[in-house]
Structure formats: C-alpha cells, structure tokens
Design goal:
alpha/beta; FAD/NAD(P)-binding domain; Polyamine Oxidase, Chain A, domain 2; 5-stranded parallel sheet; 16 helices
C-alpha cells in the first residue's frame, strides 16, 4: 500500500484517485473548492441545476465509454441527438455547415470568394514553407476566404491574435482537416464520426454526476477527500518530495506521501517546489484566458432546438450560447429556461471587470439582434467568472512548457497530469483516459511518464 496524494479534484485527478483506491492504496485528494469536478461540474441556483457551460459525453475510446457507463446508471445516462448551429452574416446554418444550407441560404458571392481564394492558392501552389501560426495552418488548408469568415474571428474572440498562436492549437481544435474534407462531409449524408458526433450522452441530473460517482467509489475504498484545501509547500530533498504542507480551511497539516499526482495548473508547481528562477519564469510565461458564463432565466419553456450555437463574428459579444434544457429537461422547471452565454476575454480587460448589470445590457442587446431572446421575457440573470480556463498556445508556449516538464521529470515521486497539469487542450473523455493511465503508471512502478505524455495529443471531435 502506497500513500498517494492527488492534487486537484477535477475529472483527471478523481479518475486516478478512484483507480488507485480500488487497488488498495491509501489515497488523499486535495481540492481547493467545496465541490468536485472542476469546470465539469454542476451547481444549484434556486430551483435550477446548472452546469458550468455545456458539456457532452462523447468518445472514440471504447474503454472510456465503458468506464463512464460503469459510473452512471443506464437509466440516468441520456442519449441525445447532437444539433448545433453557427451564425454567419446574419443567418443561422447547421453546424458543421451542409451543402443545402450553402446553396439555399448563403450569399453566392461569399461562397465564390472563399472557393476562389482556396483555388488560387492551390493553382499557384502557394503554401507556407514552414507553418508556424494558427493562421498559417488554416489559411493553407482552407484558403483566405473561409479562414477570415470563420476561423480568424472565432480565434480572436476565444484565444487572441491568430498570428501569435501556435499552429498546434489549430491542428487540435479544428476537427475538419481541410476544405476537401469539409466538402466531402457536406456531400455525404452520414456524418464522419472523426469530425462530428451524431449523438452524445449526458447524465440526467447534470455533468457533476461523473465526479459524484467517482467520489463514492473513492470513499467506498477508504480514500479521503479534503475540500477547501490546498498545498502551501513541498519539501524537496535529493529529487524526492519528503513532505508537503496542506492548508485545510484554517488548519495546516503535514503529510509524507510516497507519490504525488498533480492536476493543478502546471504554472503553480515551480513555486511550490521552490524551483530555480528560470523555471518559475517559464511557468509565469504560460498564459490562460478566463471565461465569463452569463446565465439568463427566461419565462419560456425553451428558446431553440439546438444544443449550442456558435457566434464567431466580432460584432456579437459572446462566442457560444446553450440551454441547459438542451441536455436534460429534468434540471429546469417546465415553465422556465436558462440560457448560458459564454464570453471569453483577457483577465485584465474592461469586459471582465463589468458587473452583472453592465454585462446584461451588452448581452441582451446582442441576443435581441440575433433573434434569440427579448428582454421582456427575462426574469433574472447572474454570472460566474472562471479564471485559467483556456490555455493560450502562443508561439512560445512549447519552449516554456518543455522547460518546466524537463525540471519536473527529475523528481522521483511526482508527476503532473490533466488539462491543467499538462497545459493540454482536451475533453472530458481524454481527462478520464489520462487519469487511468496515471494510475496504472503508479501501480506498475513505471518511470517513463514524460515519454507517455507524448501520446496525449488527442484530436477534438465536434
């Protein structure tokens, strides 16, 4: 039996804790919040149950789907037909965009311009000799017209200047690999599962169900979860962490773990370890963008039939909207609906500093402009502001991340893992997969973790 400390109670950390506790290890999870799941969680507001943004359960990893089905009872796991739209040039299109929509709705000049720019690039064999940025990667594969119509404005809203973002962001986040693949997907009726899901699963009572079931399994196997707790110091001696200090509410306790799995933001680890200044500087250089979730309660049974709708254009303040009822009707009263509006910006921006009233005026103006909701139907609004949500893959992120990982790889009883712990852009199924692999690594007494993480370049499926 090993004494194992898990830092962070998101899905990656909980999965590792669950599997390690089942294998008869002494497991303790440290979670700074008063609930589990990270952003894959659900909260209660009056008689509404709401997620922190829309979540879907979809995976192309069979083992992970089996694990999820072992956690959530079959009668509580809803199968949902995926429906989404994108708003462009004043019109709504099914997403991914279909050929019928292009022929019947889109201004022919837009399609001609997009196709011409791509064809001209191919005819002249115009390619970037060395793709470096997000813009390089997508302009090469889709042409300037489509890039400027969809990909550029969306990137600017979510992550920042596309010329200053690494091409890896585009290769991971854009599920369609090229214009030819997009056209093929339009022409054939059946969706390509590697590009877009036809259906997905969702727990009937909220995405927090995954975390709650993992918690039950951890505690059933004598694991311990400390809420409202965080690490204040790690005592490192000869590349081995001998002791950690944990602040739990107002108390400080010490632990001597045999092994630590960290899923907290990787930028926090060097300071906790009192690392050399160059390592701390590299950590401080990693950037995140926060997310504002603005919730609007409306006196309607529903607003639209889609799970979510994307708004890439600059003149709309939000990136995406969704209704909780689009995932489970059991979470919201029949005569009400709750709209979740997602807004991304910099933490030091004026937008992030706005109060709820100020935000509401901007949001409702755009919701009325895109014909989603009238202010006359609004009964209430509130927000949740989440920091460190979107890792920013700037042109220096790989260099800085490798500096940190090289330093951490020398510590015998510590690995870092997960979306936050590896600065890795992934989905819930990937987090569970990473958690299982970390548990196996500890159980098998392996020593090649920083080789294994090279396998964690998951492709995102819409």
């Amino acid at each position: 039996m090993k004494n194992i400390l898990i830092l962070g109670g998101g899905l990656t950390g909980l999965t590792s804790a669950w599997k390690l506790a089942e294998a008869d290890n002494n497991v303790t999870v440290i979670e700074k919040q008063d609930k589990l799941g990270g952003i894959s969680s659900t909260f209660k507001h009056k008689n509404f149950n709401l997620d922190y943004g829309p979540h879907k359960i979809y995976t192309q990893i069979p083992e992970i789907m089996n694990e999820i089905k072992s956690l959530v009872k079959e009668e509580n796991l809803l199968e949902i037909e995926k429906r989404s739209k994108i708003y462009l040039k004043g019109k709504y299109y099914d997403y991914p965009i279909g050929l019928k929509d292009i022929l019947l709705k889109m201004n022919p000049l837009i399609g001609i311009k997009a196709g011409f720019s791509f064809g001209l690039r191919k005819a002249k064999n115009i390619v970037y000799k060395k793709e470096i940025s997000y813009e390089d990667y997508l302009t090469n594969r889709f042409g300037k017209g489509i890039y400027e119509l969809v990909f550029k404005p969306y990137a600017e809203k979510v992550w920042g200047n596309p010329k200053e973002l690494d091409k890896e962001l585009a290769s991971i986040r854009v599920s369609v690999p090229s214009l030819s693949a997009l056209l093929k997907n339009m022409l054939i009726k059946k969706k390509n599962p590697e590009i877009s899901a036809d259906k997905f699963y969702y727990p009937k009572y909220g995405i927090i169900s995954l975390a709650e079931e993992m918690q039950e399994n951890i505690e059933m196997n004598n694991g311990n979860i400390l809420f409202n707790s965080y690490i204040t110091e790690m005592k490192l001696n000869d590349n081995f962490i001998e002791e950690v200090k944990i602040k739990e509410k107002s108390k400080v306790k010490k632990m001597k773990p045999d092994f630590i799995i960290s899923t907290i933001p990787i930028k926090e680890l060097p300071k906790l370890l009192n690392a050399p200044q160059e390592i701390i500087d590299a950590a401080d250089s990693l950037k995140y963008r926060p997310l504002i979730l603005f919730y609007i309660v409306a006196n309607k049974d529903g607003l639209f039939n889609d799970n979510w709708i994307f708004y890439p254009e600059k003149d709309i303040i939000f990136n995406r909207i969704s209704e909780q009822k689009g995932f489970s009707k059991d979470m919201i009263p029949n005569d009400k609906t709750v709209l979740t509006v997602e807004i991304t910006c910099d933490a030091d921006s004026e937008l992030f500093k706005l109060n709820n009233k100020e935000l509401y005026e901007k949001v409702i103006a755009d919701l009325e402009k895109v014909n989603i909701l009238s202010r006359n139907d609004v009964s209430e609004y509130f927000s949740a502001k989440l920091k460190d949500v979107y890792p920013v893959y700037d042109l220096e992120f790989k260099k800085n991340l490798n500096i940190i990982l090289t330093y951490l790889s020398n510590i015998q009883n510590l690995i870092t893992n997960g979306r936050q712990g590896l600065f890795n852009y992934n989905n819930m199924d990937h987090c569970i997969d990473m958690g299982i692999k970390a548990a196996r690594y500890v159980i098998n007494n392996s020593n090649d973790w920083y080789e294994k993480i090279k396998e964690f370049n998951y492709k995102i499926v819409d």
